[in-house]
Write a structure and sequence with these properties.
Blueprint lengths: L17 H20 L3 E2 L5 E3 H7 L5 H6 L1 E4 L5 E4 L4 H10 L2 H4 L4 E10 L11 E10 L5 H16 L6 E6 L3 H15 L8 H9 L10 H7 L5 H4 L2 H16 L5 E2 L11 E8 L8 E7 L3 H4 L7 E7 H7 L2 H7 L5 E5 L5 H13 L4 E3 L6 H12 L3 E5 L1 H6 L1 E6 L4 E6 L3 H13 L2
Parallel strand pairs: 1-5, 7-8, 12-13, 12-14
Antiparallel strand pairs: 2-4, 3-4, 5-6, 6-11, 7-9, 9-10, 10-11, 14-15, 15-16
Helix pairs in contact: 1-6, 1-13, 6-11
This protein binds adenosine monophosphate.
Length: 430
């Protein structure tokens, strides 16, 4: 006989239950509200795209394309991939729908939803994770860079995350990067044997990526390495300087981080990352930058762009429990018919409360609704319980019990919603 199988979530994936799902909804609603203030429109692209889009867009040399994609052939023999990120997908949509001419430029877009990477799971790193991102396509900056960063910081501040640690760098234009890559390769070549296998491979394929190594020995080696900043060409340097000046003027705290290069191949000039020590090893909450060559790499015209992607799972971990609780208000009002024969009245009172805008749950236990209802109200941590007894129903009243202040009073049923309104408002101090 086959053993009974208990199904579990797939490795690296998780269920978001109750408070967690609500916290995701809270950050998503906040993002919608803040991003719209800056004129961004929400788009939803499919979760599945042609594999080639990411290979061309994100880059063959990137960790994502090299190791982390969920790629499969569909029944028609097409190679498809679960999106590991969305910038390439947004760029694809930009070209497919001719947004460059059909929409006023620059095009401002945001998105949110699940993304997939086959990575080794650990705290803060999942194989399915949420990203919220925004892209501004069609302006070479630097004011667009600054505005995008201000929007991002405004969003974090709305979530109670003021003064985050912002790391900023410029990886220059393609030409600066070629020059820098060859200088870094020259510098590191004599130390090849001291590098680990990954860094040795990067030395051949994409030496820039060695800059964000975590290995202490390699970090030490890099202290004497040439700096990207010193090889930036005039236009890239001026662009970066302008951003730094405007951010200073706007009172934004940021660190110039010479080693920040980011893992995706499409970045040009501006790159940034926000980290939090609270998150431990996987401490990047979000990352972004400019990608002036991406649209052309995908077969389109030469159109510049800049954007960011926030890791929703990590962001939610940084929000205080009080704020998450507050965002979702109180538990529903628990309506309890004292006897089973009063359930019909319970059904109606709960409906009346909902019509007045209060969440309500009625206890329909057929035998002991009072006992069962009170127990559940306790477990749900309801503040308000409405009791419907024989005498109250006859008199057209209800008993309103306030668990927070351990008080109760009898009030006319018709006044219930107004009474709750008044008590909730005075409790909030509004
Ligand atoms: P990236 O697209 O690699 O620049 O990632 C942007 C942000 O997405 C990161 O800063 C993380 O917060 C988040 N992120 C990336 N990969 C994962 C993952 N496997 N699990 C959870 N969050 C992730």
């Amino acid at each position: 006989m086959a053993a009974k199988r208990r199904f579990q979530t797939v490795k690296g994936m998780r269920d978001l239950l109750q408070g967690e799902a609500s916290a995701f909804a809270y950050v998503e609603e906040t993002a919608r509200r803040v991003f719209r203030l800056y004129g961004y429109d929400e788009v939803r692209t499919p979760v599945i795209e042609a594999t080639e889009l990411f290979v061309r867009g994100v880059g063959q040399g990137s960790e994502i394309v090299g190791k982390q994609m969920y790629t499969f052939d569909d029944k028609g023999g097409r190679s498809l991939t679960l999106r590991p990120e969305s910038t390439a997908a947004v760029a694809r949509a930009y070209l497919q729908h001719g947004m460059g001419s059909a929409w006023p430029e620059p095009v401002r877009i945001f998105y949110m939803g699940p993304h997939f990477r086959y990575e080794r799971p650990q705290a803060g790193r999942y194989r399915q994770f949420g990203q919220i991102g925004a892209e501004l396509i069609g302006d070479p900056g630097p004011y667009s860079d600054v505005e995008l960063l201000l929007m991002l910081l405004g969003f974090l501040s709305e979530l109670g995350l003021a003064n985050p640690r912002v790391g900023l760098n410029s990886v220059g234009d393609a030409e600066c990067r070629r020059l820098y890559s060859s200088r870094l390769r020259e510098y590191l070549a004599p130390y090849r044997d001291e590098l680990d296998a990954d860094s040795q491979r990067r030395l051949d394929e994409n030496p820039l990526r060695i800059l964000d190594t975590k290995a202490p020995g390699e970090r030490k080696l890099l202290e004497g390495a040439p700096r990207l900043r010193d090889v930036l060409g005039g236009p890239a340097r001026e662009h970066f300087q302008a951003i730094c000046e405007e951010l200073d003027r706007a009172g934004v705290d940021f660190d110039i981080d010479d080693r920040l290069v980011r893992g995706l191949d499409y970045y040009t000039r501006t790159v940034f990352e926000i980290t939090s020590s609270v998150l431990g090893a996987q401490n990047a909450v979000l990352g972004g930058g400019r990608y002036d060559g991406l649209i052309a790499d995908l077969g389109g015209p030469s159109v510049p762009g800049i954007g960011f992607a926030i890791g929703e799972d990590r962001l939610v971990d940084l929000i205080s429990p009080e704020r998450k609780r507050k965002a979702f208000g109180e538990q529903p009002v628990q309506v309890i018919p004292v006897r089973a024969s009063h359930r019909r009245d319970g059904l109606r009172v709960a409906q009346e409360l909902r019509s007045a805008g209060f969440a309500a749950i009625c206890e329909f236990d057929a035998r002991r609704p009072l006992k069962v209802g009170l127990r559940k109200a306790g477990r749900r941590r309801c503040r308000w319980v409405v009791l419907l007894g024989e005498d109250e129903l006859a008199a057209g009243t209800v008993v309103l019990r306030d668990f927070e202040n351990s008080t109760q009073e009898t009030i006319p049923r018709a006044d219930l919603a107004a009474a709750l309104e008044a008590r909730t408002a005075s409790h909030d101090g509004t």
